[in-house]
Amino acid sequence: MKVLLIAGARPNFMKIAPLYRESRRNGQVTCKIVHTGQHYDYEMSQSFFDDLELPAPDYYLNAGPGSHAVQTAKIMTAFEGVCEAEDPQLVVVVGDVNSTLACSIVAKKLNIRVAHVEAGLRSFDISMPEEINRMVTDAISDYFFVTEESGVWNLLKEGKPLESIYFVGHVMIDNLLYHAAKLRDGKIDTKDFSVYALKQELERYAFMTLHRSSNVDSRETFQNIIAAVNEIADDIPIIFPVHPRTKKMAEQFAIKFSKRIRLLPPLGFTESLFLWKDAEVVLTDSGGLQEETTALGVPCVTIRENTERPITIETGTNVLAGTSRDGILNAYEMSLIKKTNAAVPQKWDGHAAERIWTILTGSTLLHPAPMYSL
Predict the structure, then answer these.
(1) pTM
(2) Has 243 been annotated as catalytic?
């Protein structure tokens, strides 16, 4: 079976890595990697392929920056040529970025089947570009691979056939557990020894990521967030790898960070994991880190008004903070308490990619595969 595996942004790389590794073991699948170039900064893209033990992409579409419409159009135009050249039986898209949407539309218009990995997640906030991408991709996909039970019910409510929905667990957790197992005895393979030295220096610390446009493109929102974070830093030092977008807006708005916040350049996956897995708490607006922290039992404060990953709150270590100073400070206190009662969600066991290929290779791709157990 010839498959095109789509990656466009950092979270995508983490999700396709276990799919690619498992495809090599499966023996019935030939995967080619298409990198759309949606993340075009080297530190935010190529270094992740190196980190995640992925080969060089078979295709690089060089989409680059632009508005949502411009970027989506560039990806669609370039990907159409790839599909015509390769004539795949299946296109696998992951997550909810513009690349996910663009490649799904192109594939369906060429009568190529689409499998959506991480299907069914909903924030119910259509002001989020990611929510629109999720909804439209799920509207045209043939196979829905779901990470948590809320995704099953969301898809059923939207009229998707039960026999096309598969609750398989989470490929991002596959990737996390694979790399966490390689970090033993405090050792790390890093080109930057300062990351190791920083961890050795701090007895306890928090770890933070912040990049969403809704948080950093508004001066008032960004200032409120950092006001709270600066107060948290009075209690515990914070390690903060700064996303390029966040750095640009912090300079534009003259944001002042506490001296107890250690500002770092963007980190590779392994270096980031090496730091946050032992953090006392993670502060983030990322979707993936909400799930990864839950999988490793690390307290998490999500600096957003909503989440499409409710299992991380209902079962896991995540606390939804909002973006106000008081909300973030309250969530920080709650997160340290919540850890004691948190659990790892069902099927987040490192075998999601294996289940996905078992389902797909067991199907003729002409008829729906049998429902995978809920």
Answers:
(1) 0.90
(2) no
